[in-house]
Amino acid sequence: MYQRNRQGWLKHIDFILIDAIVLQLSFIIAYIIRHGWSNPYGTETYRTFALLLFITDVLVSIAFNTFHNVLKRGHYKEFVETLKQTLLVFLIMTLYMFTVQGGTAYSRTTIFLTAGFHLVLGYLATLTWKHILKHSGTGKMARTMILVSDEGHVAEVLGNLSDQDHFKYSGVILTNRDAAGETVGGLKVVANFRNAADYICREWVDEVFIYPGEAALFTDISAPAMGTAETDGGMLNTLISQCREMAVPVHIRMPITAFGGKSFVEKIGGYTVLTSTANYASPLQLAIKRLMDIVFGFFGSIIALILIAVIGPFIKHESLGPILFKQQRIGRNGKRFTCFKIRSMYMDAEERKKEFLSQNRVSDGMMFKLDFDPRIIGNKIVDGKQVTGFGEFIRKHSLDEFPQFFNVLAGQMSLVGTRPPTVDEWEKYKYHHRARLAFKPGITGLWQVSGRSNITDFEEVVKLDTEYIQHWTLGLDIKILFKTIKVMFTKDGAM
What we know:
Blueprint: H1 13-35, H2 44-63, H3 75-99, H4 108-135, E1 143-149, H5 154-159, E2 167-174, E3 183-184, E4 187-188, H6 196-202, E5 207-211, H7 232-245, E6 250-252, H8 256-259, E7 262-268, E8 271-277, H9 283-318, E9 324-330, E10 336-342, H10 349-352, E11 380-382, E12 385-387, H11 390-396, H12 404-409, E13 414-416, H13 423-426, E14 442-444, H14 458-470, H15 474-488
Parallel strand pairs: 1-2, 1-5, 5-6, 13-14
Antiparallel strand pairs: 3-4, 7-8, 9-10, 11-12
Helix pairs in contact: 1-2, 1-4, 2-3, 3-4
């Protein structure tokens, strides 16, 4: 029976549990230092605190994938990731204590000492466990693998071996020529392609790794074997079918480099398929992101209602018309929705847009931005000088954006995402621009906090949005949110 390697965060469940145990040990040491020799789990207050520490630490490890590539990280990188883990855990715990348990007295010394011990002991425990895994002989090199490949790819396959691969190649079978008995890349050619199945049947072979040639990359390997077909694809198909009869596990290298992005195998409509995408998220990560949207969307909507009540009369005084501005925007995968903003422009702004096309800061016309926009409420030219008004003020401080929290609550937008284009902008999109629509649009995003007032090239916006999608994590969202708060209180307001 083949034992499949654990996938996703399950690959590092040992590191996750070790870190959670070390965190409990840190709590016990900190409690004893502060309160003396007594049972830290003896009181309900600290027993609850310890339980929440354990749950929070495990959830942070899973949601933020803090142990990704843990076996490949150096000492410095490992310390940075341990620091990140500690900060996230205690930030969440601090928010919990001040919101849910505001009336409960916790020793700040115990909390700070726990965080400090966790940083040090967690770092040392991770390094120690990595050392044990890398130098332990338990199960290492226990599996033998036969490589089936053309001669030109043997060196590449062997070069990709790492310390984390618990198997060894015991021989190679070439698909492009008969070479039984020869040595290629340090591996003995154990059989010819035509009698490969006989060799696998009679010799000690745990698994088979197939690196198909270009002619066979897209052969339907799920189809029944085609007898003694002369093509590489047909012969590979036959070999795979024969290995299946012998119950020998077969690994087939898929052409994922041709796709780019992130690729994985899954079941679609009963078929085993290779899925390629710019990025992907686990159900837990998406659930946490949506929970953040709901929580912050609720409070943001309350602030939006207050702003509408306060700012509304000023807008009515300066320009007759509704307080809210509604506009059709394009959301994820082309879905249209009505975007809400506090109106900062005169009612005829859209009609007057044609008058200022020649002054558009975005040279390719993919977006419309002016250095000084007379369509904004209060903006005018007096004695040859540009005078800004109330509309410019609320735009500069992003106050007009708050009604978009209504869209966040409705699930049409997210706190962090890509900028939702207008319909006329979307109609001009080329293929690579479409990538921006692969993610739910957000109130803020990477390009908004990357010197957005200075960006006048739409391709730069697309580049930043695509970068955000490709490298998305919950941690990146939190980082962007903090940067957004900073931007709102500086001169780098909304573009």
